[in-house]
Amino acid sequence: MKWMSGYALCPVAVSMFFCLFLLLAGCGTSRGEGFAIYLTQNDVPPASMPALSHIDIAGQSVISLSDILAYDAQTHDITLTTSAYKRISKLEVPVQGRSFVVCVDKNPVYWGAFWTPISSISFDGVTIWKPGFGVARENTVRLELGYPSPSFYGGEDPRSNTQVLLSLERAGKLR
Questions:
Q1: What letter does residue 6 receive in the DSSP assignment?
Q2: Which structural domain, as residue segments, surrounds residue 108?
Q3: Is residue 52 part of a domain?
Q4: Which helix (H) or strand (E) holds 40?
């Protein structure tokens, strides 16, 4: 095999080729679950969330990409399937709220709380108002700032997080 001696690949080139192959193979269609909203494990109250350095999410999401028909990046309206909307409508939400975590591939990005519009307790965080009270678009919930109004919210708005919007865009859910 004297003719092959001039074409021998050095070990470095073989290693680089192999690493490049593995990197590209990891860029296939399998991207994890993407955007999802989880309740907290052990139902951590919203008032305790800022003091935690680590948040454990529940085993199953309360809103997943398969539940979402569309996400409006301007208003942060989430149009849900009828079954998901009914599930959220039946979610037990006390007057002091129920914590949730917005995740991408099960990695927490920001947190907020489901809130009932009959609560007299104000909240300085991201909320999803429990459906069934007041006027709302059918099968739509909104990620809101503060309760009872945005004037109760302080800090930076996390809802336009690049990871979140990119995940929704990749799934074809972003408007």
A1: G
A2: 35-170
A3: yes
A4: strand 35-40
Q: How far is CA 110 from CA 13, 19, 78, 126, in A?
A: 42, 34, 16, 9
Model pLDDT for residues 153-171, shown as the tens digit of each residue: 999 999 999 999 999 999 9
Q: Residue 159: name the closest of 141, 137, 133, 138 by CA.
A: 141
- On whether residue 104 sits in a domain, the answer given is yes
Instruction: Give backbone dihedrals phi and psi of 76, rounded to 5 degrees, phi first.
Output: 65, 30
- For 96-137, write each residue's pLDDT tens digit: 999 999 999 999 999 999 999 999 999 999 999 998 766 567
**Domain presence at residue 5:** no
Cα dist. 19→7, 11, 142, 144, 157 in Å? 21, 12, 43, 44, 39
Q: How far apart are CA 10 and CA 21, in angstroms?
A: 17
Within 10 angstroms of residue 60's Cβ, the number of other Cβ atoms is: 9
User: 148: cis peptide before it, omega within 30°?
Assistant: yes
> How many structural domains compose the chain?
1
Q: What pTM, to 2 d.p., does this model score?
A: 0.80
10 inside domain:
no
Strand partners, 144: 127
List, in order, residues 6 or more apart from 128 with CB less than 8 Å away: 37, 88, 100, 112, 113, 114, 115, 141, 142, 143, 144
